[in-house]
Design goal:
Bound molecules: flavin-adenine dinucleotide
CATH topology of the largest domain: FAD/NAD(P)-binding domain
Strand content: 15-25%
CATH architecture of the largest domain: 3-Layer(bba) Sandwich
Helix content: 25-40%
Largest sheet: 7 strands, mixed
Distance between the termini: 25 Å
Number of domains: 2
CATH superfamily of the largest domain: FAD/NAD(P)-binding domain
């Protein structure tokens, strides 16, 4: 194949958006390479289907972290999308920009151009609010973010009232003027179908002659001429191919695979590369370091009143919900189960929210942790509340375990390794109890199933968290952005330090994890990153 202008590695949340933006002028030839297959699958498109794709090897890398001492030695399960749209095709669809302070901190960490006032126009350039709410007029992008307030289960109102009873105010729009508070999560759906950057950005862009998409093509390594990225070597249909890029290789393989590919290509901590016999192209010690993630636990309640379980558990309930979906594209199959939520300050002296909350009008105590049987909740009425620290301070890392690109890297999340993170767990656990003791919820609760009323002390609640907590699937910062090539991987224009023709544009460049879900912020990074790449190429 003749050289193209840009090769994009990975057709996930970031890659699909970048492919659209880089090909928009019609001038540059753009090739997008995605290891997985098409996203035209029922369980990808129907929102509730993420319960199926959660552990389906046809669309999921299904990674596993190393045994985690803080979680009683358990290996946490790390699903990642291996399909067009990436993790944005298998995620829970909650759309959250995060808090303004998240981005002001990115800027203050030495990344000019990434403060809240800088990134807000990029959020607005990607979102389409479907004409609903105060932000609708300000946003002008293709990614539909749906306000499902009127469709939320009636129990969500009780949750919001309980929050108000303990001092946390309602906000009608987490992604508007008041991002702090409690309310109903907006989701990335359009007319009852999952919306992703593949459906919103890439699909229309594929009509352009200068944009080509290769599915089921796994990049094995990046190729260099001196210190310039010249192309990639990939595996397609059993054949190994070398492809060339004239202007840049753009790495959008996500927080696990972007650092893995850099390491496999000789960019990373020198001693580690030498240990595997990989010739060092450029030593960058921070590749794979700085790993951050959200870790949450759910508190389960048996309810005295009917919950979503009553609708989804019986076979006839499933049938009715299915019919409602087919006929109207509404109802529980069109929603995320994470309906209520919030970003709150557990202590009013804090500058920005420290806890993210979830309220699901359904319960799944009977499910094993590696399954998300969303259509098979408990056979009795139940619901759950959940929390995680917004900005955990623990830092993990990941590294290749073999020079073989087909072997998954070793992931060391290092959860709960700081006193601050353990304290956040204790604060969050007591908050769950205060919330469910407040009248609007207390009146509905038969009893707390998990962790159970017998666990009351700080030690018991922390131990319970260690036994039951799991990732919320938000790993970031493994190719972290920053000024210093010793502690970071890319600069504020997302160029890899010390190399030419190579950018990383995905969740791995976040300077720190945002206070909420990471899909929207990743799309924003892609929008801004593509604009910077085009501006620098002029
Ligand atoms: C189960 C789950 C639930 C989640 N829920 C939410 C939620 O409700 N809200 C939210 O905001 N966020 C959520 N997230 C997180 C969010 O989806 C991610 O932060 C976001 O998708 C990251 O985007 P990315 O572009 O960095 O990576 P990805 O979207 O993962 O894209 C990376 C792409 O690169 C491809 N790739 C990797 N290696 C190679 C290779 N060597 N060659 C070719 N292609 C390659 C992958 O197959 C993938 O398509 C969830 C994630 C998961 C897994």
């Amino acid at each position: 194949m003749d050289p193209v202008d840009y090769i994009i590695v990975g057709g996930g949340t970031a890659g699909c958006l970048v492919a659209d933006r880089l090909s928009a002028s019609g001038r540059d030839r753009v090739l997008l390479l995605e290891a997985g297959g098409s996203d035209r699958r029922a369980w990808v498109r129907v929102p509730i289907g993420y319960g199926r794709t959660f552990n389906d090897p046809a669309v999921n890398w299904m990674y596993e972290a190393e045994p985690e001492p803080a979680l009683d030695g358990v290996r946490s399960y790390w699903p990642r999308g291996k399909v067009l749209g990436g993790s944005g095709s298998i995620n829970a669809m909650v759309y959250a920009r995060g808090q303004p302070a998240d981005y002001d901190d990115w800027r203050d960490l030495g990344n000019p151009g990434w403060g809240w006032s800088d990134v807000l126009p990029h959020f607005r350039a990607i979102e389409d609010r479907g004409g609903v709410g105060a932000e609708a007029a300000a946003t002008h992008g293709p990614l539909r973010v749906t306000d499902v307030t009127t469709q939320a289960h009636p129990l969500v109102r009780a949750y919001i009232e309980a929050c108000a009873a303990i001092g946390y105010a309602y906000t009608p729009d987490f992604n508007g003027a008041q991002p702090e508070g409690v309310g109903v999560y907006q989701i990335t759906t359009r007319k009852g179908l999952r919306e992703s950057t593949a459906t919103a950005f890439l699909r229309p862009a594929l009509r352009r002659k200068n944009l080509e998409l290769w599915l089921r093509t796994q990049v094995l390594r990046l190729d260099f001429e001196g210190r310039r990225a010249a192309g990639v070597t990939c595996l397609r249909g059993g054949q190994t191919l070398a492809l060339r890029a004239r202007k840049a290789v753009v790495l959008c393989a996500g927080s696990v695979n972007s650092p893995q590919l850099l390491q496999l290509s000789g960019i990373g901590p020198g001693a580690m590369l030498q240990g595997f016999g990989i010739p060092t192209v450029h030593e960058l010690p921070a590749v794979g370091r700085n790993l951050q993630d959200h870790l949450a636990v759910s508190y389960f309640y048996r309810s005295r009143v009917s919950t979503l379980n009553n609708r989804l558990y019986p076979w006839w309930g499933k049938m009715l919900a299915g019919m409602q979906y087919v006929l109207t594209r509404r109802g529980p199959l069109s929603m995320s189960v994470n309906q209520g939520g919030g970003f709150i300050r557990s202590n009013e002296k804090l500058r920005t929210p420290d806890l993210q909350l979830y309220f699901n009008p359904a319960s799944y105590t009977a499910s094993r942790t590696r399954t998300r049987r969303l259509m098979n909740p408990d056979p009795f009425p139940g619901f759950l509340t959940s929390f995680n620290s917004c900005r955990p301070t623990s830092r993990g890392h990941l590294e290749i375990r073999s020079p073989d690109p087909l072997v998954q890297p070793a992931i060391y999340p290092n959860y709960l390794s700081t006193e601050q993170d353990r304290q956040d767990v204790i604060v969050g656990a007591h908050l769950m109890r205060r919330l469910t003791a407040a009248k609007p919820l207390a009146a509905l609760i038969d009893h707390e199933m998990l962790p159970g009323a017998a666990k009351t002390t700080d030690e018991e609640l922390l131990q319970d968290f260690r036994e039951r907590a799991g990732t919320v699937f938000h790993p970031v910062s493994t190719c972290v952005m920053g000024k210093d090539p010793v502690t970071s991987v890319v600069d504020a224009r997302l160029r890899v330090h010390g190399l030419a023709g190579l950018r990383v544009i995905d969740a791995s460049v976040f300077p720190t994890v945002t206070s909420g879900n990471t899909n929207g912020p990743t799309a924003m990074v892609a929008e801004k990153g593509a604009a910077m790449l085009l501006a620098d190429a002029e």
